[in-house]
Amino acid sequence: xxxxxxxxxxxxxxxxxxxxxxxxxxxxxxxxxxxxxxxxxxxxxxxxxxxxxxxxxxxxxxxxxxxxxxxxxxxxxxxxxxxxxxxxxxxxxxxxxxxxxxxxxxxxxxxxxxxxxxxxxxxxxxxxxxxxxxxxxxxxxxxxxxxxxxxxxxxxxxxxxxxxxxxxxxxxxxxxxxxxxxxxxxxxxxxxxxxxxxx
Length: 199
Prior knowledge:
two-stranded antiparallel sheet
């Protein structure tokens, strides 16, 4: 039985000064760096959007960031342009020790579909390949940290639980956007899915 540490989207655009900054997002980095050696498998995810991605408000005439819209796969929050492929904003924060990672999952590459989860795009069908990788290595327990608690971390945790992993969200090493009560909603959904929240 092996465990995996999955660090979600600790990128410049999600840290202070970035295009979609999460308050105090960079404060979690020392704690994350201290966790690497306690896990058998270590993975990073990285938002990696082409220019003009459909999740960008700028791609929808008359829409502003943080408005919701309907896509062919369901409701979608519209965001400021962020984590554009090859940009400094898409790079991992320079203080994050990325050399420990066994795998990097780049998500949101499809211009027509956003991808919050480390496991599936937002159509809930298209796999990122992470599940197959963890299965091949015998991983049964998944621990998650990173940005943001109420979006990409929560979606990754919920998908991991659906796939049969024992799931723990390490909230001390997460920060949230908390948009219109999204953090409380995400915590409720995770607890209902028997995900352990560690503060």
